[in-house]
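does this look right to u?? adenosine-5'-diphosphate version
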Amino acid sequence: MNLRPKSAVRDLDRHWGQVQAMLQAEFGETAYRTWLEPLTLVGLEGDRVLLSVPTRFLRDWIAAHYADRIRALWRRVDGAIGGVALTVGPAPAASGNPPVATTLSPLARPREASATANSEAGIGAPLDARCTFENFVVGKTNELACAAARRVAELETPPFNPLFVYGGVGLGKTHLMHAIAWHIRRRHPARKVVYLSAEKFMYQFVKALRFKDTMSFKELFRSSDVLMVDDVQFISGKESTQEEFFHTFNTLVDRGRQIVISADRSPSELSGLEERIRSRLGWGLVVDIHPTTYELRLGILHCKAKLLAPEIEVPERVLDFLARRITANVRELEGGLNRIIAQATLVGREISVDMAQEVLQDVLRAHERRITIEEIQKRVAEHFRVKVSDMHSARRARAVARPRQVAMYLAKQLTPRSLPEIGRKFGNRDHTTVMHAIRRIDELRAVDAVLNEDVETLRRVLQG
Ligand code: ADP
Ligand code: MG
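got this back:
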């Protein structure tokens, strides 16, 4: 470590304080406390700032997510700084030897060219050509999972091991795994990627047992650089397979190979899995994909429409309709769009909301929304700062009448209730009053941007 005049050391301390404050402001309190607070300033090494972290995992995580920003911020407060390096371990005493630092960049270590060609060696499952990162639409609910998957695909040294992705059915877990495989095949063809379902893994294993050929089975997996096992909830229970899976897993991790796992639930919820395996699965990075939001569904529909039928223009209103009505998962959403496009191309029908409603009758019925009129009234009242009782009252002042009309309008849009039913819930009003309210709000939305925004916001809030 350089011997520097005392003032320089003081500067370094002061600069670190400034960088920390900026990091805190930029990433927020929670992220800062979780990831960045454990960083300790060690000193300077040449023109690089040396920071220490308590664990390898933290080092990898920070290297993957924050290193660029730390470096950039530091250079902002001190242009003489060339870079930032992370080291694992407690900050050494001032007189100690400089710790061995891991330079943040380049992250990849050189790798011997693998003799295995870019093949699945007969054990993997085929990859869906459409499941690439380019075709994966990112939103709040899946951005962490997607970022982690990209990291894994881009780096030759596992940034976290294993990467464990979990979430409900049809939310993109398999898509992300295929995307990792495609990316590596294209960019690092020498790396051997094996993707398969947990079921296939078990099947292969049982087959190998039967033919007394477990050695080559082991070698097949153990020679892979990246092993991805989809839907591991299906492994639970079968003891010998669990054992084998665990051995394979450990061997690969020990050899510095990347493992990616998916499941429909978190490691701790994987019942039927041995405790030591369960805990081992949670060692790396565990990320979940949450249910979709309206915005994400709309984004995905735009993307899929372009992929499926670039020559067909699916009206925005139809996409909006689908995004609002098919909320369970992306697979169903995609299925709905497929059917509409098929109708249009095969039968030559014009695509409209009415047509979509008719073609998708069965799917839509299954998704009958459970938003209640009471809920709508409460939200709308909150939004416009009126009393819930005003939703039922006879008051006709604009300040309460307009919110009431908005609530009726939303009730018609978001619930399957009929006009008379809605009228009854709004202080026993006549259905013609409800009809008038809906028409009025429709008209106003076209000319009043503020009101339009109000309605949109409320709809989004109500739909979760
Ligand atoms: P899972 O494995 O989680 O059950 P899949 O990865 O099979 O779900 O996704 C179901 C379908 O939805 C696939 O066709 C996939 O391409 C699509 N899909 C899911 N999420 C997205 C997304 N964010 N962007 C684009 N397509 C998606
Ligand atoms: Mg899947």
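DSSP finds 19 helices and nine strands in the chain. idk if thats expected tbh
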